[in-house]
Automatic annotation (TrEMBL):
Transmembrane regions: 30-49, 56-80, 86-106, 118-138, 144-164, 176-194
Coiled-coil positions: none
Organism for this UniProt entry: Candidatus Daviesbacteria bacterium GW2011_GWA1_36_8
The keyword Ribosomal protein is annotated on this UniProt entry: no
The entry's keywords: Membrane, Transmembrane, Transmembrane helix
InterPro entries the UniProt entry points to: DUF5656 (IPR043715)
Protein name listed in UniProt: Uncharacterized protein
Length: 195
């Protein structure tokens, strides 16, 4: 299962291909090619690691997690740019988040998708969707909206990921709380409440 490849490519096309001149497209295309190649390598490692244990699994898992967060940022940016009503923002973000989350949670044990993984994915997707609804009423730029939601995804998915790997501890929780506080403070500072 890998939805990240398709969504990453889709977002890149929507966000970057039409608005840049040819001079700017070369570095952008090169960066996309390298990052997409890295993403494909990670998926290849998962394919092999599902059959037997290999040492590259941790690197692939980290890379996949990072690309999931990056892809979510781009997706949320596209959703916010569509200027949908707040309830559609919530529904679309919850659905897209569910697709991204289920792939990351599956990669923890790389076995059959269980009811536990589906339940966690649904709950986390719903929480991200609720965050999108709440942020729909906040007067922020699309980039800040996307940053806040992808940070929310990073925190929730990171906590559940660590929990499933039996690595959740106070130090990790403090790190997630620090990241949340930093992004929330930044979001408040850049919000234009005057209209």
């Amino acid at each position: 299962i890998d939805i990240t490849n398709a969504l990453y490519s889709f977002c890149h096309q929507l966000l970057f291909s039409s608005s840049y001149k040819v001079v700017n497209q070369a570095p952008n295309s090169s960066l996309f090619a390298i990052s997409f190649y890295t993403l494909l390598l990670s998926q290849n490692v998962f394919n092999v690691a599902s059959l037997r244990t290999i040492p590259l699994y941790r690197a692939a898992s980290t890379s996949s997690f990072l690309f999931t967060i990056i892809t979510s940022f781009f997706l949320y940016n596209v959703v916010f740019a569509l200027n949908l009503p707040f309830y559609w923002n919530g529904v679309v973000v919850a659905f897209l988040s569910f697709l991204l989350i289920i792939q990351v949670l599956w990669s923890v044990k790389m076995e059959k998708i269980t009811g536990q993984i589906i339940t966690y994915s649904l709950i986390l997707g719903l929480l991200i969707g609720e965050g999108a609804v709440a942020l729909s009423f906040w007067p922020v730029a699309p980039t800040i909206w996307s940053l806040a939601l992808s940070t929310y995804l990073y925190i929730l998915l990171g906590v559940v990921n660590d929990y499933l790997r039996d690595r959740l501890n106070k130090r990790h929780l403090r790190e997630y709380i620090f990241v949340a506080a930093t992004v929330l403070t930044f979001s408040f500072l850049v919000t234009s409440w005057s209209g």
